[in-house]
Design goal:
Strand order of the largest sheet: 1-2
Mean pLDDT: 76
Low-confidence stretches: 1-18
Radius of gyration: 27 Å
InterPro entries: RNF121/RNF175 (IPR040176), Znf_RING (IPR001841), Znf_RING/FYVE/PHD (IPR013083)
Distance between the termini: 44 Å
GO biological process, one term: ERAD pathway
Number of helices: 10
Membrane topology: Multi-pass membrane protein
Helix content: 55-70%
Oligomer: single chain
Structural class: mainly alpha
Strand content: under 5%
Main location: membrane
Shape: elongated
Number of strands: 2
Number of domains: 2
Keywords: Membrane, Metal-binding, Transmembrane, Transmembrane helix, Zinc, Zinc-finger
């Protein structure tokens, strides 16, 4: 009992002693909890009396966030192509910087594997003339990554919720371990979900314009036959009313028909909400009759929010820190 009381008194006293001039505390002799208390007390002592300065920093942060958001929206509306390219580059590189800095080697290995395969697929998608098998290869790859990232994100979310409700104790798993596992899976799913969607959209635009049925502005450069898919340019052998062995055939609200993998990749993975041939708006509710498939569209909207958080938020925070440094605020 005396030992426990002595330990409690030490924890309470150490932060105060460390602030007294002339008294030095050896941090190596303290437990991690005691070290945290000392650092916490030092931080409070350093910033004591800086309320006005902190208020200025908050105002600068709010103003920078508002101005940056307005500029990004205008940039996206006026020059969407350059905005998407810069955002994709930042989504790809910014996490790599933190990975190397914080020694997250598992994430680095997965990032390298994903980047290598995606670079190969993107290279195939940008070749002229386009090989007939390339569109299906591209869509299948990105659809595979989409499903894996979607499932990973769901599992991570469930793990986090189970931990919050204390269900991890049924399996004798520590709360911190369960929460780390859930957050890691959730981040992996959301991050690679965002990355593959942006690469898929870029490849979809390039391949469709190369084939000739689709152009971003103007009429198609080729006439679409009823038995040809406008996305991949290959023949359609399965009727819309028939059940396919490998994949089915889909008819959009504009009566144009496509391969299942192609139109799913175009609408869901490539974030395209129009027909690849006539640009009529796609009725997703009619095309995806299975109610379990509709949440995929909502999941895509969630990834759009994450794109802003990962790609632009670090830049905005860095800008705020630079302004505070110039003004002498800390």
């Amino acid at each position: 009992m005396r030992a426990e009381s002595k330990s409690v008194l030490l924890i309470v006293a150490v932060p105060s002693l460390s602030m007294v001039p002339g008294i030095k505390v050896d941090m190596s002799d303290l437990s991690p909890e005691e070290q945290w208390r000392v650092e916490h007390a030092r931080m409070h002592a350093k910033h004591r009396g800086h309320e006005a300065m902190h208020a200025e920093m908050v105002l600068i942060l709010i103003a920078t966030l508002v101005v940056a958001q307005l500029l990004l929206v205008q940039w996206k509306q006026r020059h969407p192509r350059s905005y998407n390219m810069v955002t994709l580059f930042q989504m790809w590189v910014v996490p790599l910087y933190f990975t190397v800095k914080l020694h997250w080697w598992r994430f680095l290995v997965i990032w390298i594997l994903f980047s290598a395969v995606t670079a190969f697929v993107t290279f195939r998608a940008t070749r002229k003339p386009l090989v007939q098998t390339t569109p299906r290869l591209v869509y299948k790859w990105f659809l595979l990554i989409y499903k894996i990232s979607y499932a990973t994100g769901i599992i991570g979310y469930m793990a986090v919720m189970f931990t919050l409700f204390g269900l991890n104790l049924l399996f004798k798993i520590k709360p911190e371990d369960a929460m780390d596992f859930g957050i890691s899976l959730l981040f992996y799913g959301l991050y690679y979900g965002v990355l593959e969607r942006d690469f898929a959209e870029m490849c979809a635009d390039y391949m469709a314009s190369t084939i000739g049925f689709y152009s971003e502005s103007g009429m198609p450069t080729k006439h679409l036959s009823d038995s040809v898919c406008a996305v991949c340019g290959q023949q359609i052998f399965v009727d819309v009313s028939e059940e396919g062995i490998i994949e089915n055939t889909y008819r959009l609200s504009c009566n144009h028909v496509f391969h299942e993998f192609c139109i799913r990749g175009w609408c869901i993975v490539g974030k395209k909400q129009t027909c690849p041939y006539c640009k009529e708006k796609v009725d997703l509710k009619r095309m995806f009759s299975n109610p379990w498939e509709r949440p995929h569209v909502m999941y895509g909207q969630l990834l759009d929010w994450l794109r802003y958080l990962v790609a632009w938020q670090p830049v905005i925070i860095g800008l705020v820190q630079g302004i505070n440094y110039i003004l002498g605020l800390e």
